[in-house]
């Protein structure tokens, strides 16, 4: 697994609310680039295997949502959750989770995750290609600090969740 210094340049396919559309689904597609998301900002990013999955839904996302204001107080501009899921799944998961602070960033094609070197095969669970768990601080597109779960491998029989959690990130930022 190669360690990279900058987040990869990709285009994320996102959906944004647009009241001019009207009707029950007032959303339109909006391409957002790496520069749009990370340029000129200090951002906390965490990545997880999938929306609606047990650890992701009970611990990973909820704790980042809970500590969001503390991250902001430490100079973080945004907290972003990346997952190899499409925009529709990420939106519904966010609604179901009541996540209104953390930005859920869909990496539907897994391009960002692949270029980060974090794409793993989870076919043993019927998931196909997904993200390995990690978290990082990105400062103006440069990776300042990254926490990668141990045991990175395809079809890993376990789902390590020790260092990409919100509390580890908060402790890093308090000491940084």
Automatic annotation (TrEMBL):
GO BP of this protein? cell redox homeostasis; cellular response to oxidative stress; hydrogen peroxide catabolic process
The EC number of this protein is 1.11.1.27
GO molecular function annotations of the record: thioredoxin peroxidase activity
Tell me yes or no: is Phosphoprotein among this UniProt entry's keywords: no
Q: Domain Thioredoxin, which positions?
A: 1-176
Q: Give the domain of life.
A: Bacteria
The record's catalysed reaction(s) read: a hydroperoxide + 2 glutathione = an alcohol + glutathione disulfide + H2O
Keywords, A to Z? Antioxidant, Oxidoreductase, Peroxidase, Redox-active center
- Mind telling me which Gene3D superfamilies this protein's record contains? Glutaredoxin
Query: What GO cellular component entries does it have?
Result: cytoplasm
Q: Which CDD domains match?
A: PRX5_like
Q: Where is the active site?
A: 56
PROSITE patterns tied to this protein: THIOREDOXIN_2
What single Pfam family name could you report for this chain, choosing any that match? Answer: Redoxin
Q: Which InterPro entries match?
A: PRX5-like, Redoxin, Thioredoxin-like_sf, Thioredoxin_domain
Family listed:
Belongs to the peroxiredoxin family. Prx5 subfamily.
What role does it play?
Answer: Thiol-specific peroxidase that catalyzes the reduction of hydrogen peroxide and organic hydroperoxides to water and alcohols, respectively. Plays a role in cell protection against oxidative stress by detoxifying peroxides.
Q: What is this protein called?
A: Glutathione-dependent peroxiredoxin
Q: Which organism was this protein described from?
A: Anabaenopsis elenkinii CCIBt3563
